[in-house]
């Protein structure tokens, strides 16, 4: 079924990875069909909300049949762009960059990790997850010859001012930013900011509210 082009609320987009992960789990369990009601009870999202979310993309279910798990999983992968095989690099081979390279299953999620860069002479040339860390001087040539799509920023805030313009000039169109600073980039560059401390503070709020309510 074709996907209609329409403006999709961002809150819906934020739920899609969760649908994708859960449907993947159902496939591994051998489940081939599921209703919105069954999906609702397992995911903690109302059946009405699930149907509304999927209707943003034209709807994928059949009345009285529910959803074909494999088909829905594939359609959400297409919507999320996971079928593109976006070429990805990591900027920063410190603790965070090292952890991301080793513990994030890029290929499983539709991304191809092709390079890791750092300016520290002590780590340049070392190997992380079968990739040799390259010097920052090699960045532009590498991005050009490999047609890199996404850069993961795992470096200190102070380095961002210099690095981001270089990435944009090199044709990078997606930035996954762990630098705890907002980025000023052209409109055609997509940015996803990851603020780990924000998540911890949100958890603190939830815990505080539960304690207030005696939960």
Identify the strand order in the major beta sheet. 7-4-3-8-9-10
The CATH class designation of the largest domain is Alpha Beta
Tell me the CATH architecture of the largest domain: 3-Layer(aba) Sandwich
SS-derived structural category: alpha/beta
Radius of gyration: 20 Å
User: Strand count, sense and closure of the main sheet?
Assistant: 6 strands, parallel
Task: Please name the CATH topology of the largest domain.
Answer: Rossmann fold
**Uncertain runs with pLDDT below 50, 5 residues or more?**
1-5
* Distance, first to last CA: 45 Å
Question: What's the helix and strand layout?
Answer:
Blueprint: H1 10-28, E1 33-34, H2 36-43, H3 47-55, E2 67-68, H4 69-80, E3 86-91, H5 95-103, E4 111-118, E5 127-128, E6 131-132, E7 134-135, H6 139-146, E8 150-153, H7 157-169, E9 174-177, E10 190-193, H8 196-213
Parallel strand pairs: 3-4, 3-8, 4-7, 8-9, 9-10
Antiparallel strand pairs: 1-2, 5-6
Helix pairs in contact: 1-4, 2-3
What can you tell me about this protein's structure?
This protein is of the alpha/beta class and 215 residues long. The protein has 2 domains: 10-79, Arc Repressor Mutant, subunit A (Orthogonal Bundle); 86-197, NAD(P)-binding Rossmann-like Domain (Rossmann fold). 45% of the residues lie in helices and 17% in strands. It has 8 helices and 10 strands. The strands form 3 sheets. A 6-stranded parallel beta sheet has the order 7-4-3-8-9-10, sandwiched between helices. Helix 5 links the parallel strand 3 and strand 4 (111-118). Helix 1 (10-28) crosses helix 4 and helix 2 packs across helix 3. It is globular, with a radius of gyration of 20 Å. The protein starts with 9 loop residues before the first helix and ends with a helix. The model is unreliable at 1-5 (pLDDT under 50).
């Amino acid at each position: 079924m074709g996907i209609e082009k329409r403006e999709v609320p961002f809150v819906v987009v934020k739920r899609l990875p969760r649908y994708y992960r859960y449907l993947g789990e159902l496939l591994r369990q051998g489940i081939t069909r599921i209703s919105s009601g069954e999906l609702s009870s397992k995911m903690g999202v109302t059946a009405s909300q699930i149907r509304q979310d999927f209707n943003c993309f034209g709807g994928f279910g059949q009345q009285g049949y529910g959803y074909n798990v494999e088909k829905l999983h594939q359609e959400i992968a297409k919507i999320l762009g996971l079928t593109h095989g976006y070429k990805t690099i990591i900027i920063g081979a410190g603790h965070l960059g090292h952890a991301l390279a080793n513990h994030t299953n890029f290929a499983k999620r539709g991304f191809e990790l092709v390079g890791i860069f750092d300016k520290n002479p002590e780590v340049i040339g070392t190997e992380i997850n079968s990739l040799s860390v390259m010097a920052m001087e090699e960045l532009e040539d590498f991005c050009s010859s490999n047609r890199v799509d996404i850069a993961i920023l795992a470096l200190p805030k102070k380095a961002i001012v210099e690095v981001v313009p270089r990435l944009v000039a090199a044709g990078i169109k997606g930035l996954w930013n762990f630098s705890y600073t907002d980025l000023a980039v052209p409109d055609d560059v997509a940015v996803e900011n990851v603020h780990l401390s924000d998540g911890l503070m949100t958890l603190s709020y939830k815990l505080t509210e539960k304690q207030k309510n005696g939960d």
